[in-house]
Amino acid sequence: MQVQLNPTGVLNLLSQLEVDLLQQSSNSERYRLFRNCALAVLNVGSHTDSSSEIYNKYQDFDIKLIARERGIKIALDNPPETAFVDGEIISGIHEHIFSVIRDILFICQRHQEQINTPREITHMVFDMLRNADALEVNSDPNIITCWGGHSINETEYQYTKEVGYQLGLRGLNICTGCGPGAMKGPMKGATIGHAKQRISSNRYLGLTEPSIIAAEPPNPIVNELVILPDIEKRLEAFVRTAHGIIIFPGGAGTAEELLYLLGILLHPENAKQCLPVILTGPKESAGYFEEICAFIKSTLGEAALEKFEVIVDNPELVAQKLKAGVKEVREYRKERGDAYYFNWTLKIDNEFQMPFAPTHQNMSALDLHLDQPTQQLAANLRRAFSGIVAGNVKDEGIQAIKQHGPYTLSGDTSLMKDMDKLLRAFVEQGRMKLPGSKYIPCYQIKA
Amino acid sequence: MQVQLNPTGVLNLLSQLEVDLLQQSSNSERYRLFRNCALAVLNVGSHTDSSSEIYNKYQDFDIKLIARERGIKIALDNPPETAFVDGEIISGIHEHIFSVIRDILFICQRHQEQINTPREITHMVFDMLRNADALEVNSDPNIITCWGGHSINETEYQYTKEVGYQLGLRGLNICTGCGPGAMKGPMKGATIGHAKQRISSNRYLGLTEPSIIAAEPPNPIVNELVILPDIEKRLEAFVRTAHGIIIFPGGAGTAEELLYLLGILLHPENAKQCLPVILTGPKESAGYFEEICAFIKSTLGEAALEKFEVIVDNPELVAQKLKAGVKEVREYRKERGDAYYFNWTLKIDNEFQMPFAPTHQNMSALDLHLDQPTQQLAANLRRAFSGIVAGNVKDEGIQAIKQHGPYTLSGDTSLMKDMDKLLRAFVEQGRMKLPGSKYIPCYQIKA
Amino acid sequence: MQVQLNPTGVLNLLSQLEVDLLQQSSNSERYRLFRNCALAVLNVGSHTDSSSEIYNKYQDFDIKLIARERGIKIALDNPPETAFVDGEIISGIHEHIFSVIRDILFICQRHQEQINTPREITHMVFDMLRNADALEVNSDPNIITCWGGHSINETEYQYTKEVGYQLGLRGLNICTGCGPGAMKGPMKGATIGHAKQRISSNRYLGLTEPSIIAAEPPNPIVNELVILPDIEKRLEAFVRTAHGIIIFPGGAGTAEELLYLLGILLHPENAKQCLPVILTGPKESAGYFEEICAFIKSTLGEAALEKFEVIVDNPELVAQKLKAGVKEVREYRKERGDAYYFNWTLKIDNEFQMPFAPTHQNMSALDLHLDQPTQQLAANLRRAFSGIVAGNVKDEGIQAIKQHGPYTLSGDTSLMKDMDKLLRAFVEQGRMKLPGSKYIPCYQIKA
Amino acid sequence: MQVQLNPTGVLNLLSQLEVDLLQQSSNSERYRLFRNCALAVLNVGSHTDSSSEIYNKYQDFDIKLIARERGIKIALDNPPETAFVDGEIISGIHEHIFSVIRDILFICQRHQEQINTPREITHMVFDMLRNADALEVNSDPNIITCWGGHSINETEYQYTKEVGYQLGLRGLNICTGCGPGAMKGPMKGATIGHAKQRISSNRYLGLTEPSIIAAEPPNPIVNELVILPDIEKRLEAFVRTAHGIIIFPGGAGTAEELLYLLGILLHPENAKQCLPVILTGPKESAGYFEEICAFIKSTLGEAALEKFEVIVDNPELVAQKLKAGVKEVREYRKERGDAYYFNWTLKIDNEFQMPFAPTHQNMSALDLHLDQPTQQLAANLRRAFSGIVAGNVKDEGIQAIKQHGPYTLSGDTSLMKDMDKLLRAFVEQGRMKLPGSKYIPCYQIKA
Fold first, then answer.
1. Which of C219, C220, C418, D178 is the most exposed place for a label (fewest CB within 10 A)?
2. Is C126 in the B-facing interface, judged by CB distances under 8 Å?
3. Using the beta-carbon criterion (under 8 Å), do B119 and C17 form an inter-chain contact?
4. Pyrimidine/purine nucleotide 5'-monophosphate nucleosidase N-terminal domain spans which residues (chains A, B, C, D) (predicted)?
5. Fold adopted by C140-447
6. Cα angle: C376, vertex C381, C384; to 5 degrees
């Protein structure tokens, strides 16, 4: 099966030099990156979250760019069928392919050299969002970033839809990591809310990165997809574009996001930052939040609990609080002359910005003792959960685990116990992996 | 509670003369019509389908037009709260209020004189749709009219959503009678399908009429609402704008629609008309369709069964068939130079066009014998079911039943038996009225 | 030569009943009206202002409506060639044809019955402008109506362009009677001004009527053309939509407009009306304005002179004053809750609203004595000049003069003398007719 | 006088890093470039074409970027008053300021490193046009590049307007070097033509470069302004975006353009290129074209004359030929799968791409002998005229001449004679400089 896609968007305006960059012949590493991301967005109907499995299944998939008089055509060999309706590619997926090309080219061309200073890293995050037209200069604050598990139960899923609906009715837009579960529900709900409110400028912003995109393929409702180069830049993009954050129940990835956020918000320079954060879920999930709060309290302390609010089983209240919250964000930024579309003034320490490679060595070396500064601890915990996500669903992580066995995490006994307890709960509640397979932990906790 | 709505749409351009037409002081009958329709669209969250009950509940509701420098403001006294989110009216409902004003004014101003000839009636239907901007001159055929019950079970409801989703993925638009149940599901589903296909010109056309609007209030997804003056013109609008028709399970209203459609399609002059019609539902509803088909066969004969197709439990196939069907409609009309946006050439006999008032006298006088021409029989059966709908949910019908007892229907024994059987099935399956009340039949069948 | 025009605009949505209304076979009077207006807009390159001459020249011109699947096609037999570029009709002219159809149909359908009360007349003017989409509800006041001669010299023409340019630079829109000369110059100038200011919602509103349209064909820059049924409704449309008025040098028609305007503004109920009026021209035309002012002073009195301002040779100042003026109009209307888009509160007496037929009898019967109320005198003087315009350029007027000789005007000697002087000046300055023919007066003044 | 401009366009989305790049403090050379270009676009009403004079006159002009919550504000100290209408900057000029920022930033950021290969140079030209949104992927070929003098007489100017009008009526867009004279006339004319044809996607593309922009400030009708880094890239942008080329009478700059074009078209690899080229002017300018043709013939030979057509005094024919020509361009490119929006396949030799710095040394060293390959000769002649333009109107050229006296050109006697003759004619016809100053040649010809 071969399919040709017509050019669309500004992306059809590629120079020959750029087309060459993405050809298989020119550079196999770059081509592999491009091909895998393209495959991931085409594979949205997937029922597995194992990147390796997906890449294995579609070994005969191929993608090529062909120059034509009205722009660049894309030729696909053996693409996943779920991307098509009666032989026609779904437009949303078609757009995502172009987002992939745009962002891979951007990463290859504009920021080839090493970027290391916080200023350069932040500029790159900004530059990629701008290049993707994902910064709206004339809008009031209205982006609610929703985090939460890709694997959640039906009750939780319906709840995320209802929250999305209530946000949509209030004219708020949704940003997520753009996979299934808690990343999809709020967008579906908001779509109906926006339709009832006749909002045609509705935004469903999906932020992803090459190593997670296959496990969490962007659902086609996402109408602005940005592929950041790594998880750290993706997290920075989340927090700098958000005007409010919701955290639904989730697993290791959600824990990583929460720890990243708290680590930043606890920085003294961010003490006055205005950013409403709400943890919410249906009443059946009340226990989950108690567990999370207990973990945060025992690791990052009471102060961390003040950075967010927990609301159980009340989608309308969540939406009302965030509606009020983004108004405060507006006031706060207006007073200071800060941009609405990008939170330049949020202080993000270098240790939250620098990429963490979850090798076995790096994982074992993580300092997980309680007697270190809170932010430092938050940064290290963030890295630990980030590694577990890699081991669960990312291609390289899975390969590494297959080869070397589970990661080893060690540190203070009490901390290790808390962590073990939390992770076991995630496993029991089926939050680590999509249903259908028995979960085998990719880590072991050493006291 | 008083609320003022800002002017919106072209409707804010009213002359003082027109504003006066809709004031309480000027003409109480016209004002009552206007007020009741406005109340109906505001009352969309309603859990009853009894028009009388609704009008009773909101006796202190009032609506006024006020001229302002940028158009006409609307003042509402004591509107239903479900129309508002945090004190702001939902935009979709706001638009519906203006549709009400537009159409009531139209009916009052432009067609005051009696119109009786088929040509004038059809022109009026056209004129109202045009005035409502509901005729798209530059589109290819893509309107799928969906009929079905306002009171259906959850399985059937999910099925209508899935069909809508599959239609939406294929770029088809939805037209319904715009109440709950089978009138809402396809629109919700299509909204998600359209979002994935990036279709921003998505149309959710709702056709209603003053006596049904309270029982079947337009859901806010409807983005084009037209209030035709009576059920006959509404039915004509349905069939002349449709490029394909789906009939989901339903009760007396759905039976009325099916009989109207078959009565017309069986007219010899319509023998060559191209209009795909599909009856569909989940596998649990297979029995329903068997019953309907049996009734049609024994009343209108085998030939009537050839005018439609029954597809059980296959939303994708339904959508594929209709996608193919509208292409044929396009070819057919193109060949003949017929308009795409309005089926001028469909022959509708006068007896299907002339309003039928479901008084007790008219109902008893209905000729329900088998020994009459098929179309004649279809027309009379249509009237019978139309009367039952009135007795079930329309204000005037309910009042008449309260005063005079149930309608009496009589005719050939075998026909009466078939009808009785069908109606009993509707009752048992809960299709006559929304759940929550015991259904007391508004009719009695005499052999 | 036969040309077919594709349907465009909402007008392609005609019902068969409406198409029939405009067919030659159905009603010859209505068809003649339609045909002549269509011919007039096609004949925009014309070098004559004699309606009779134009109708004579194109006796073999014919126009037909043909129903097609995507709307109504128009077939033209032997249209004037100047409407075409390389065989393709100029889009602006194409649109004008549709405006003709829209307005002729409107006049035929909606207001067939006699309308006589001021309220009904004003409603009709409003209704036609609304139907033509010529009322902008969300704009601040910005319409400058420009009056002036269709036959002016090159210096005056360049001056009108410069004034238009300065208005355009300030975001003001132009409304004129839409013929050549002072009706075209301001639009051309404003087009350049608007382009420099990137104003894409630029409006060039042309108001005309069937008996003048051939003599003053709308130039294709006019992007909103409305054909009112008669000169009185056209004048009412001018003053109710204008937020400021400029009067350039002109002949009898311009005098008619000025007298109409002053007659209304002098009404006591209009004493507080806010409407800036400026008479302007190049320094070479200073004498013209002195003459006009003298005539106004001796007929309507000093008070009339206070209703306008004369600015000679200063386009920038004219534009600045009007920019300031429309701001005052905005304040004035906002305070009172008056509409911006239509001046409902302007009092127009019945004698300015009722059509005046310039027959020989009516012309001789005009009461042109000074000893009558000022507004009455203004109304009668307006009629006198209106008649002269008819005798100069309108078909019926020209025919009547050909048959019965010049109109006779009589009244107070001094008034007659003033009038004679003014008219002679118009003749000498070439303002009565386009250059190229010797002007033979259509009137005679009796003391 | 200090003025602040609100952010507009995508350009308001600057990162702090980028804002810093354009601050005076950061890099004086870059800041000077930015300031001078900004001054040039503000100074559009200028009556001199001497860059030095302009920079001298506005020594106290200053420009600063200031970050604000909704983007970047621009603060101007002592800007030229002609850019403002009643204290408000003209929108077109406002946009041009943003084009300056966009392109200066682009040049500074993206292509800092040396680019030398033809492929890289062409990619940069493409990249800048794309970044400026000046490549329209979905349009059929319709860009007519108009070259010609900035200093032409009134008859010639009116002629360029008429040609522009005829092009506009045919839906063709205009690209020029965006100064006065022949660069402005076609745009003004086309504006009226486009208005009559209701073309709202009208494009007035101006291509300039930092050293010429002050002498030829973009007129505000230009709605897409691109500042290429040097004259060679500007010329490449002209020929790769053009679908047809008109050359009006002009001076040294026009000669440079013609020689550049012919040098390229004479390349054997371009033998089949489809690009209509027309030299045209009013009948009074017939002599001018004879002179030019004679010069071309005696230098580049007969073959060069076949690359263009001369049409005297027939704007309509010019427009018709180009309309037909762009259709051929479309066919040609479609057949080959070439892009419509950028002529990738046109072969441009390195010697036409590499920047030529018109120093006294480089000018004297130019090889102006006839016994060299034709393209080589064309390239050198192009450089000679380019140097003369610099000496006439560019800042650095003027300074160099002031310091070292006129450039010296030498070569074959007959060639020198022809050149001298042509240049004298330019001087006599006032084509070298805007009227108002006596022209002192910046060159001397040595045989």
1. C418
2. yes
3. yes
4. 3-110
5. Rossmann fold (3.40.50)
6. 130
Structure confidence by residue, pLDDT tens digits, B242-259: 999 999 999 999 999 999
Output the CA–CA distances (angstroms, integers) from residue B184 to A160, B180, B190, B194, C343, in the order listed. 21, 5, 10, 15, 44
Q: How many CB pairs under 8 A join C and D?
A: 56
Q: Which CATH number fits domain B124-447: 1.20.1560.10, 3.40.50.150, 3.50.50.100, 3.40.50.450?
A: 3.40.50.450
Two tokens, residue D203 = 């494009």
pLDDT band at B302 (very low <50, low <70, confident <90, very high): very high
Query: Does the beta carbon of A66 lie under 8 angstroms from any beta carbon of chain B?
Result: no
Q: Does C286 touch chain D (CB under 8 A)?
A: no
The single-letter code of the amino acid at B302 is: E
Interface size A-B, in CB pairs within 8 Å, comes to: 56
Whether residues B169 and A91 touch (CB distance < 8 A) is answered with: no
* Domain A119-336: assigned CATH number: 3.40.50.450
For the CA atoms of A114, A117, A118, A121, the dihedral, rounded to the nearest 10 degrees, stands at -20
3-state secondary structure B313-327: CCHHHHHHHHHHHHH
D435 pLDDT band, cuts 50/70/90, is confident
| Residue D342 to chain A, least CA–CA distance (Å) | 9
Angstroms from D374 CA to nearest CA on chain C: 40
D71 φ/ψ sector (left φ>0, alpha ψ -120 to 50, else beta): left
Answer whether A71 sits within 8 Å of D338, measured CB to CB: no
**In angstroms, what CA-CA distances link D317 with D274, D281, D283?**
19, 12, 14
D90–C196: do the CB atoms touch at under 8 Å?
A: yes
Question: Where are the domains positioned within chain D?
Answer: 2-109, 119-336, 350-446
Give Cα A134 distance to the centre of its chain.
15
C294 at the D interface (CB within 8 A)? no
Residue D68, both tokens: 């604000």
Mutating which of A6, A8, A10, A13 best tests the D interface, going by the most D Cβ atoms within 10 A?
A13
What does the pLDDT look like over C34-90, one tens digit per residue? 999 999 999 987 778 788 888 889 999 999 998 776 678 899 999 999 999 999 999
Quick one: pLDDT at residue D16?
A: 82
Q: For residues D362 and D409, is the Cβ–Cβ distance under 8 A?
A: no
C164 touching D, CB under 8 A?
no
What tens digit of pLDDT does each residue of C376-390 get? 999 999 999 999 999
Query: Measured between alpha carbons, how far is D27 from D31 in angstroms, rounded to an integer?
Result: 6
| Contact call for C16 and B344, based on CB within 8 A | yes
Instruction: Specify the pTM.
Output: 0.90
pLDDT at B435: 75
**Touching partners of A (3+ C-beta pairs < 8 Å):** B, D
Q: What is the pLDDT of residues A243-295, one digit of tens each?
A: 999 999 999 999 999 999 999 999 999 999 999 999 999 999 999 999 999 99
- Nearest-Cα distance to chain C for D37, in Å, is 19
Residue A27: is its pLDDT beyond 90? no
Contact yes or no for D123 and A17 at CB 8 A = yes
Is residue D281 within 8 Å of D393, Cβ to Cβ?
A: no
C169 to chain D, any CB pair closer than 8 A? The answer is yes
What is C2-109's CATH superfamily?
Answer: MoCo carrier protein-like (3.30.1850.10)
pLDDT on residue C9:
66
Instruction: Kindly provide the ipTM of the predicted complex, given to two decimals.
Output: 0.90
pLDDT above 70 for B112: no
- pLDDT band at residue B295, thresholds of 50, 70 and 90? very high
Average pLDDT of chain A? 92
Lookup: tokens for A439: 């979960």
Give me the CATH topology for the region B2-110. Answer: MCP/YpsA-like (3.30.1850)
- The single residue listed with the structure tokens 């759940």 is B435
Q: Output the CA–CA distances (angstroms, integers) from residue B146 to B313, B319, B347, D447, in the order listed.
A: 16, 12, 21, 89
